[in-house]
Amino acid sequence: MLTAVAGIVGALVIGAWVVVAWGSRRRQPWLLTPFALLVVLLVAVGQAGWSFLPAAALVAGSFAELVIGARESPAVRTKDPDAPLSTERWAAAVAAPFRVALAEPWDVVARPSLRRRYRRLLERQWQVTDRESLLAAVEGLLDELHTSPTLDLVVDLRGGIARSRFPRDEGGQATGGHVLLTPEQVVRLRAVTGVGEADETVIIGAYQWWRSVHVIRLVCGGATLDWLSPVETQTLLRRVASDLQRRYSSWQQLSTAFHAGYLLWRDKGVEGDHGGADRVWAALGLLTEDVRSPWNLLPWDMPLERVIPEGGLAANPEP
Q: Where is the DUF1266 domain (predicted)?
């Protein structure tokens, strides 16, 4: 009788734990797997009474995940802080805010634990469901970046409003893109642009190139889902990195453009699976200020690696 009861309780507890772990989209609850196996083992060998102990641990762990798991604060985490400089590491740093928002290591391009999240994200934001649609989305974004006109963001720091416009040499007309800023956002923009308290207006030039981060996110998703080979991944990341190094001169310039572009992008109500808009905004602040941030540690103008094609000969798309 005890064995039957323990078996039923164990099955219910393990089932509930699997649902919580699967739905949490985090790796931490899966660390309780040994407890689930121990429940099964103890029931199988006739030690049904002892199986309630690991079952209780599973219940406690699942409850903790439900209560605090989703509230894990954004954090700058690195899988290998001593890893050598590389094109992939540099490009991953560009897209770091979206990983930092999830408290995931920023320096891992292919992240198997994020497969479900990437699959959902790619379909929701870009209607990408396979390799072909992924490559089409990447090329579409790259073409748009290279053919779209340059845009400036004019930030009225006193009035708390930011408006997108064409540069003065292109007429200076407003594009219609604007966002109302909170006092905290005004303070952050003052900090990242370096303007003083007496300044009422600041112009953030060529901010639209922040969207290169979306190309990197697509590539990371493709690598994670095994839709891109390592060579294809490195080739695409090198292409994006080369574009950004030509258009900005420092991580500080990228940070400024990222802040500006992200505010407009978020204001459009873009649906995503990046941990929530406020978490990404918090991650941007961390990457700007934290001494462990790749934006404060990696050299901006590092030489980009040559890509080694599968044929074995080095290819250097750009001199």
A: 122-300
